[in-house]
Amino acid sequence: MQMTGNIGTAVALATFLSTVTIFGHGRADEIADGAVVREVWPGHYDLLKTRSQRNREMVDASLRRPDARPVTVAVWQMRNHCGGEEGKRNNLRRIIEAIARAGREGVEILVLPEMCLPGYFTRSAGPPAEAARTNRELADEPSRSESLKQLCDAARDQRIVLAFGFCERQGDKYYNAIGVIDADGAWLGSRRKNPLSPTPYDLESFTEPPAKQRYAVFRTRYATVGVLNCFDGEFPESARRMRLAGAEVLLWCNAATGNIALGSSNRIHHSASYAQANRMWVACCNAVGKECYGTSVIVGPSGDPLVVLPTDREVFGLATINLTLGSDWDRWRQRLDPQLLEPLNTHSPERDCPNAE
Fold first, then answer.
1. Which residues face 212 on adjacent strands?
2. Which pLDDT tens digit goes with each residue over 102-152?
3. Full 3-state SS string of the chain
4. What are phi and psi of 9, to 5 degrees?
5. I want to staple 282 with a disulfide (CB 3.0 to 4.6 A). Which of 22, 139, 243, 250 is the partner?
6. 46 CB contacts (<8 Å, ≥6 apart)?
């Protein structure tokens, strides 16, 4: 287990930016007025780094204001591991160790990857039929699970709000779920992946909840949070609905797969757009491993990242944010299209998310 560094986590962002500069070449001043540009302007990367640094400095300065509402948020880019019951026990042990480490760093909200407790079953682990069998064998019922009780105890001991992935069983149904535990160890509920990813690894393993349950909002000790679960986070209406329901921070748990050498800007762009369009904070955590490409990110209402993690390292990303910086959301809310607001306002998270309290 490694730590990215201090709250600024400038090293993690600098590492990421240094890897992407290979796609540009030449000097910024070589482009003259009237030129036709067919690549990313090389100076863009330096400006992105500068804006990110200034954004961190702005957030740090805002924390000294009398009205500041500081919260220390972290994402742990956990290495994905499938290994049956033994693998699940090992994952549980490592998660509890990560919670303890986060507690020592002063973390108040910790976000882990999708299905991190049993392990996210990918092609390298076996075929879809084996995935379905394994996921169901390793499923947990929140009211009866010893594993979830241990996580509740660990969160309580460190006074941490925890979002983590597991397979939730309810009767004869199995859900790809994100569990949310409050800082006092109370089980708040789960966000069940909805919609499921249109692949046999999701469709043959899990039940898809009704479409009206595509969001979940939880009031925790430190902030009101909304929760996204990997693929279902690619639908912006879910993020907007949760912001309208009062979410201040969006916790997005992923086991997104792809090219682990190159990574992907997908989650970076999504997170930035959700943060800026909804004047909220986004802590997006992805797994690393044989097929998961990391690149976890923490973004504020400006849309510029505070933290971006590497593609292949099991590391923490950490930032102390100021919830007050999203308090101007009402200026945007008042100007939303009323025709869009009407269907969004017909449901409440308390009524339409069975496991949200």
1. none
2. 999 999 999 999 999 999 999 999 999 999 999 999 999 999 999 999 999
3. CEECCCCCCHHHHHHHHHHHHHHCCCCHHHCCCCCCCCCCCCHHHHHHHHHHHHHHHHHHHHCCCCCCCEEEEEEECCECCCCHHHHHHHHHHHHHHHHHHHHHCCCCEEECCCCCCCCCCCHHHCCHHHHHHHHHHCCECCCCCHHHHHHHHHHHHHCCEEEEEEEEEECCEEEEEEEEECCCCCEEEEEECCCCCCCHHHHCCCCCCCHHHCCCEEECCCCEEEEEEHHHHHCHHHHHHHHHCCCCEEEEEECCECCCCCCCCHHHHHHHHHHHHHCCEEEEEECECCCEECCCEEECCCCCEEEECCCCCCEEEEEEEEHHHHCCHHHHHCCCCHHHHHHHCCCCHHHHCCCCC
4. 50, 40
5. 250
6. 28
pLDDT(6) > 60? no
Q: Give strand pairing partners of 163.
A: 111, 180
Domains and CATH numbers, the chain: 2-24+68-352 (3.60.110.10)
Q: 144 φ, ψ to 5°? A: -125, 0
